[in-house]
Amino acid sequence: MLTFDTARKWIDRWDRQQEGYLPGREERFRALIDAVEAGVDRPDPLVIDLGCGPGSLAARLLRRLPWARVVAVDTDPLLLSLGEAGYGHTSGLRFTSLDLRTPGWSAELGLDRPADAAVSTTALHWLPEEHLRAMYKELATVLRPGALFLNGDHLDADEATPTLARLERAVHESEERRAFADARPEDWRQWWDAVLADPALAEAGAARARSAAAVEHHGSESNLLSTHVAALRDAGFEQIGTLWQRGNNRLLCAVRA
C-alpha cells in the first residue's frame, strides 16, 4: 500500500530533480497559473493537464484556484500512483490514465462540458511530430472557443533563427551553471533508478514495466518551437506566442479559435 508520506517524499524528490533541468521551474509554474487565472474569466475553470506526471502542476494550480477542476492525464502507472497517493485527496483533482498517442483519448476524459484551458509542462516534447499534430487536433475538439492552451517546455528556435537559438541555449546553460555551482541535484535517470528500487513502489513499478506506452521514450522528439506553432495553427488555434521565457525555457500560449 503506497502511503501519503511515501508518495510525497518521492514527489518532492521528483520536483528537485526536475529543477535540475530548469532552475526557473517554479517561476514558470507561477506564470502559467497567472495566465489561467487571468484568461479563463471564471473562478471555477475546467482544466486538462496533459502529461501530468505525479501532479506537480495540477496541485499548484488548485492551490491558487481552489474552485477549479483539473483532469490530469498521463500514461505512466508509477507516476500516476504517486499522484493519486500524494494528491488524490485534493478537491477538484482527478487523475486519468490515457495515452495521448492513441486516437480517441479525449472521449475518455469524462468531461461534462468543453474545457476552459489545457496545460502541460515538460512533457509534450516526448511526442513525435506525427502524434503531436494529431493530439493537438483532438485537443481542440474538447476546448471551448477562446480556451487557452499553455505549454511550458524547452522549445528551441530553429534553423530560421539559428543565432537566437544558440543564444537562448547559452542563456539557459549559464543560468544552470550559476544555480548549481556547488552541486547538481540527481538527474532523471538517477531518480528513476532510485524509485524503482523502493519496495513500496514495487507494484507500480511492475505495472510500469508491463506498459510499453509508459517506457517507450526515444528522447526529445518535438523540441522545436516552429513544430508546435505550426501544429497548433493547423489544429485551429490562433494568437500563438511566448508569454514567458528564460533562454529556451518558455511558456507557449495559444487560443482556441
UniProtKB/TrEMBL annotation:
It is an enzyme of class 2 (transferase). One of its GO terms (biological process) is methylation. This is Class I SAM-dependent methyltransferase. Its EC number is 2.1.-.-. Keywords: Methyltransferase, Transferase. It comes from the Bacteria. Residues 47-146 form the Methyltransferase domain. InterPro entries: Methyltransf_25, SAM-dependent_MTases_sf. It comes from Microtetraspora glauca.
